[in-house]
From TrEMBL:
<dbReference type="Pfam" id="PF17936">
    <property type="entry name" value="Big_6"/>
</dbReference>
<feature type="domain" description="Bacterial Ig">
    <location>
        <begin position="123"/>
        <end position="196"/>
    </location>
</feature>
<protein>
    <recommendedName>
        <fullName>Bacterial Ig domain-containing protein</fullName>
    </recommendedName>
</protein>
<dbReference type="InterPro" id="IPR013783">
    <property type="entry name" value="Ig-like_fold"/>
</dbReference>
<dbReference type="InterPro" id="IPR041498">
    <property type="entry name" value="Big_6"/>
</dbReference>
């Protein structure tokens, strides 16, 4: 189009046509020419880099100028990336890039510039509290930095490729000034430190013993809190309008670490505030188990106040018991047979494990003798067996000379059984089964 316009000889016509060509070229440039994007550069940096959108047009090369003086031309790769080892530049130097447009001319529309900044101006330091033991922040990528505490250098390190730095310095007292100094290669000196002052967390936690079941303390009014036991979160809560908080966590073993974290409203994350270690004397593990007979239906004994115990019958776990505030416990277990083994274990609050069992063996109670059947005198030839048993018994069993004969009904505790051929010297036994399943018996010898 430009070549055709150049051939036109009429000045008025040529001027109008040239205006149209210029307008078309401008529209073309704006649609295909992208502005380069330059990465920041500090006085410590030695490489200039950037990227160009080459989706519509790739010039192949790009020109780099320093303080408006062309310095070099570098290649632009297929992805639009370019870089140049520019060496250390002074603060305030202006670095610019541009490239040739589709007509092969350097075009002002393609120019982009950055100004070299101070190393220290690119250094930031994150705030620190009395709980923090590591200083963190940002600097120029790969920058060398020195860490200072109250003006004294304590360590040296480097920022990573993304400009992040981190260094352990231990927990510091409230009011301590922690700083980071960036190294300036142009002067071979460290820049003035960027600093932060260690602040208090403004959260307290009360001391806890192994008799305490609630964590409490103070925090900023209405602060959101999270509670941890040995590093594991167990509950959340909120301080009240006066800044007080309390949360039930149960009694803990000596040596347990109880912590409270406070929500940071800026990050939306919980941050460690305060911890306490549970103290206290070892808790008693002394307990007793009362003896049991076939007369008893309740397991009893003593233990530390409010202690938890569990009991088994003949090795089979039955239930859990809690001692009262006076240290006494009782549990209905029903009457047990002679020889039954009842064992009790105490939950040791020092280890949170059950102790070895204490066991008792059920013995025959004296009450059984008074409950034995009463057999009246049996006379040879009459063959009548009569007597009494407890009124709660409705059936008895009758034996003759060790041989079971029959089951006989008992009414209001009285029983009668007739056997005509009973002889003098025969032994008659009557028995019944009590509530525990034990047979209670008595014997009578037939007389002449």
């Amino acid at each position: 189009a430009q070549a055709l316009v150049d051939k036109v000889t009429d000045p008025t016509t040529k001027a109008a046509l040239q205006a149209d060509v210029d307008k078309a070229q401008q529209l073309l440039n704006s649609s295909v020419l992208a502005i380069p994007q330059l990465n920041p550069l500090t006085e410590a940096g030695t490489v200039l880099s950037g990227k160009l959108d080459v989706s519509k047009y790739n010039p192949g090369t790009i020109r780099i100028s320093i303080n408006n003086a062309p310095a070099t031309i570098v290649a632009v790769d297929a992805n639009g990336n370019f870089s140049y080892s520019i060496g250390n530049r002074k603060v305030g130097d202006v670095i610019s890039v541009d490239y040739k447009d589709t007509k092969g001319q350097y075009n002002a529309a393609t120019k982009a510039s950055i100004t070299v900044t101070s190393v220290s101006s690119n250094v930031t330091i994150n705030k620190m509290t009395e709980n923090d033991d590591t200083v963190t922040g940002k600097a120029a990528p790969n920058a060398k930095v020195r860490y200072v505490v109250n003006g004294q250098a304590v360590n040296v390190g480097y920022a990573d490729a993304n400009g992040n730095y981190s260094m352990y310095i231990g927990k510091q007292k409230v009011g301590t000034v922690v700083g980071v100094e960036a190294f300036d290669p142009s002067t071979n000196q460290y820049k003035t430190a960027v600093t932060t002052t260690v602040i208090a967390v403004n959260v307290t936690i009360q001391a806890m013993t192994n008799a305490t079941d609630t964590v409490s303390g103070t925090a900023p009014a209405n602060a959101k809190l999270r509670f941890l036991i040995n590093g594991v979160a167990v509950n959340v809560g909120t301080a009240d309008a006066s800044g007080n908080y309390s949360k039930y966590v149960g009694t803990q073993l000596v040596g347990t670490t109880v912590a409270v974290e406070m929500m940071n409203p800026e990050t939306g994350k919980y941050e460690l505030a305060k911890t306490t270690t549970v103290t206290g004397a070892p808790k008693s593990v002394n307990y007793t188990v009362a003896a049991l007979t076939t007369d008893n239906d309740t397991l009893t004994g003593t233990a530390p106040a409010n202690a938890k115990l569990r009991f088994s019958i003949n090795g089979n776990l039955v239930s859990v018991i809690t001692a009262d505030a006076s240290g006494n416990y009782s549990k209905f277990i029903g009457k047990q047979k002679d020889g039954t083994v009842v064992s009790v274990e105490l939950l040791n609050e020092n280890t949170n494990q059950y102790t070895a069992a204490q066991a008792v063996t059920v013995t025959t109670g004296t009450g059984n003798a008074t409950l034995a059947p009463v057999i009246n005198t049996i006379t040879e030839g009459q063959g009548v067996v009569t007597g009494t048993v407890p009124t709660s018994v409705t059936t008895v069993r009758v034996w003759v000379n060790g041989v079971a004969q029959t089951m006989v009904s008992a009414t209001n505790g009285n029983f009668t059984w007739t056997k005509a051929n009973l002889k003098a010297g025969d032994t008659v036994k009557v028995d019944y089964k009590d509530a525990t399943g034990t047979w209670i018996s008595a014997e009578k010898v037939v007389t002449k």
